[in-house]
Amino acid sequence: MKVGSDTNSRTASIPECPIVDAIKNIGGEWNFIIIRYLNEKPMGFNELLKSVRGLNSKTLSRVLKNLHSAGIVERTIINTQPFLVQYSLTEKGRSLDPVFEALREWGTRWAVTGMQIPGAK
Fold it and tell me: Helix, strand, or coil here: 109?
C-alpha cells in the first residue's frame, strides 16, 4: 500500500471477512435482542413488544421484517378469531445458538461488571 493513500482505498483492498458478513446479515442491537427472545420460544408481536423494554412497535415491525427477509425468522399466521401472527426462528436462526452462548459466556465474564467499551452505546 502507498503511504498517504486515503482510508477508502485501504478498506477497498481488504478482503471481506466472514464476521463482517455475519454482522451485516444479523444486523444491529435490536435484531440480537429479538433473536435472543425468539430463541427461548415462538412469540406473538405484542408478546415481543411487552417483553423487550424500550422497543416501540414501529422498530419491532421493521426488525421482524428484516429478520424475516434474511431467513432468520419465520412468520406463521394462526387461524383464530382474531387471527394471530407468531414469530419463531428458522433453522438458520436457530443455528445462531452457539454464537449467543458464546456471547452469554463473554457477557457473564466481562460485561456484567458494568464496564463498557469506550465509544460503545
Answer: helix
Model's pTM, two decimal places? 0.73
In a domain, 3, yes or no: no
Residues 6+ apart with CB under 8 A from 111: none
Quick: pLDDT tens for 64-105: 999 999 999 999 999 888 889 999 999 999 999 998 899 889
Which residue carries 417483553 as its cell?
A: 51
Per the structure, the count of domains in the chain is: 1
pLDDT tens digit sequence for 35-62? 999 999 999 999 999 999 999 999 999 9
CATH number of the domain encompassing residue 66: 1.10.10.10
Number of H helices, E strands in the chain: 7, 3
Q: Is 8 exposed, middle or buried (0-12, 13-18, 19+ CB in 10 A)?
A: exposed
